[in-house]
Amino acid sequence: MSALPVYRWRLAPDGYATYRQLRALGLRPGGQDVAAELQRPRRRRGPLVAYLYRIDRAKPVRPMTPARRAALERANTAQRICPNCRRDAGYRIPRSLGMCTPCADSPTT
How far does the chain reach from its first CA to its final CA, in angstroms? Predict the structure, then answer.
């Protein structure tokens, strides 16, 4: 097993990009393995780590089809329905609460 090359923050060579940088370029990793690591040191904790991918091996982002758009809309709608009162909350319900804010704020009897 070979070790990944490790670069300091802002010192990675050209030709590498993080996942977010690839998305900004309209690309995706496309099944390639992580090519390198980017580390940002911190004082009292371990370093922040970002994984780098090779830009020349990246593939274009797949286009959004009508079926994928509909499935994504259904999934987002399901996360807006309060399981307690069964109403559309108008926002994604926080997992920490598990219900809409009015239901979480009301006293339980």
Answer: 59
